[in-house]
Amino acid sequence: SGTTTANISGNLHQIASATLAGVSAGTITPSASILNPGPGVTLWQSSLTITTRDVWMKRLALRNVGSAPASAFQNFKLYVNGTQVGSAMALDANGYVTFDMSSAPVALVAGTRTVRVDADIVSGASRTVFFQVRQAADVDFVDSSFGVNITPTRTPWAANSGTTYGAAGTSIISGSS
Question: Given a cut of 50, is residue 177 above it in pLDDT?
Answer without folding.
Answer: no
